[in-house]
Specification:
Layout: H1 2-6, H2 14-18, H3 25-33, H4 37-47, H5 51-57, H6 80-93, E1 109-113, H7 117-128, E2 132-137, H8 145-148, H9 157-169, E3 173-176, H10 184-190, E4 193-196, H11 218-227, E5 236-240, H12 244-255, E6 260-264, H13 276-284, E7 288-290, E8 293-299, E9 302-310, E10 316-326, E11 329-332, H14 340-343, E12 351-352, E13 355-356, E14 370-372, H15 375-378, H16 383-400
Parallel strand pairs: 1-2, 1-4, 2-3, 4-14, 5-6, 5-11, 6-7
Antiparallel strand pairs: 8-9, 9-10, 12-13
Helix pairs in contact: 3-4, 3-6, 4-6, 5-6, 7-16, 11-12
């Protein structure tokens, strides 16, 4: 209550503008301050059906909290993320359900391919308009990266699944079924519109001599740690890359019992794509960083790295100096491949740099029946961005199908 009462309840609040799903931050905080915690959660859910997970995984330091007016007063920003987490934990802890507006069930069916945040955001928004939605997910559990790919210390599997259950309680059908190349024609016949929220493909491989032996995919490592399928890793682990996934994989390795975990990055700390707070957390967990090194070979538990530098033209240069690093397990975290080749079987969808091309206002592709959002469109951003994409696409789908109003802008 003390923190909630610090909020100035700004008109035209910059924190709300900074949120990709435009959660009305002053509104939900004011409800907490007045003791209406359930009402606070409902106002969050109106804008973001995954408000619980986003409260845990959003980089609030660069979004809502980063935009807080308290910065201009030389004061600590309102702890928006923690207040949102408090409201959502209270909501689910009391067994409450997402309110669904009373609407006639429309004779319209939409398929959402992929069970991650983009599809879930799209499905929930369409259900509020009375549209029937079926989500197809190839994995045993829905939720996409929320369930499998976000570090356990940020978001537990159970916390992701309780949101899935809440979305199912809205009437969204979720099927554990993989959609193959041959299935799209059938989907086109059976459904009035199709949303593609398929994310990205496999992690890029190292492509160095010996680069397969003792190598573990970063997302597989994180998923195995979260689900309990992986109980230990080697004593020495080298994670290649320095994005947020690399940080998550390194921290997971430490928590799985590795004595030494190094993150190996071919550039310096100024160029890393991981957020600063993620880097600081990794240091606290005991992860070590090896800057300006590029792996060039892997043999018998030894990773050979070359020194790198930037020349006068601003290009990365591989030097002659070599460093050997003991690594029983090497974990590449150097990005994921797009699924353009797989999706290219759908005739009429356009791609640019491997990403699905859409109208950013509606999520519409160049094929009249297909809409898309999330990582397959933006190349890999935050969970909240995927939810926002799904919401926009839901509005685009509703307009295309003649549904005049979709709940919540």
């Amino acid at each position: 209550m003390v923190e909630a009462n610090r909020c100035l309840n700004c008109f035209d609040a910059p924190c709300t503008a900074a949120c990709p799903t435009h959660i009305d931050v002053p509104r939900f905080i004011k409800k907490i301050a007045s003791g209406n915690v359930a009402g606070s959660a409902r106002s969050i859910l109106e804008a973001n059906v995954l408000g619980g997970s986003c409260a845990r995984v959003c980089p609030v330091e660069v979004l809502c909290e980063g935009s807080c007016v308290m910065h201009h007063r030389a004061e600590k920003p309102i702890m928006i993320g923690r207040l949102q987490r408090y409201a959502m934990d209270n909501f689910y802890g009391r067994g409450l359900q997402i309110p669904v507006r009373q609407r006639p069930e429309l004779p319209l069916r939409v398929a959402c391919v992929g069970g991650g945040p983009a599809s879930l955001g799209c499905a929930a928004e369409l259900r509020q308009a009375g549209v029937q939605v079926t989500v197809f997910d190839k994995r045993d559990l829905a939720g996409g990266l929320n369930t499998y790919g976000v570090a356990e210390y940020k978001l537990r599997v159970s916390e992701s699944l309780r949101e899935i259950e809440a979305i199912q309680s809205m009437g969204v059908e979720i099927l554990q079924r993989e959609i193959g190349l041959e299935d799209f024609a059938a989907l086109e016949r059976e459904f009035d519109a199709i949303f593609l929220g398929v994310g990205l493909g496999e992690m890029h491989r190292l492509r160095i001599p010996g680069g397969d032996a003792g190598v573990m995919d970063a997302l597989d490592l994180i998923a195995g740690y979260k689900t309990g399928e992986i109980l230990s890793v080697g004593r020495t682990v080298a994670v290649i890359g320095c994005g947020n996934t690399a940080i998550d994989a390194a921290v997971a390795s430490k928590r799985l019992g590795a004595d030494e975990v190094h993150i190996v990055y071919r550039r310096g700390p100024e160029e890393m794509s991981a957020f600063g707070f993620e880097y600081e957390h990794a240091l606290q967990e005991g992860v070590k960083f090896l800057w300006w090194r590029q792996p060039i070979a892997l043999e018998a538990g030894t990773l050979l790295c070359a020194e790198t530098s930037i020349n006068e033209a601003g290009e990365l240069v591989v030097g002659e100096m070599r460093t050997q690093l003991t690594a029983e397990v090497v974990v590449p975290a150097i990005g994921q491949s797009p699924l353009a080749e797989w999706l290219s079987s759908v005739k009429g969808i356009q791609f640019a740099k491997g990403r699905v091309v859409v109208d950013r206002a509606t999520g519409a592709t160049s094929h009249a029946k297909y809409f898309a959002g999330g990582d397959c469109v933006n190349g890999g951003r935050e969970v909240v961005d995927a939810v926002a994409d799904g919401k926009r696409a839901a509005r685009g789908i509703a307009a295309a199908l003649g549904v005049m109003e979709v709940a919540h802008g």
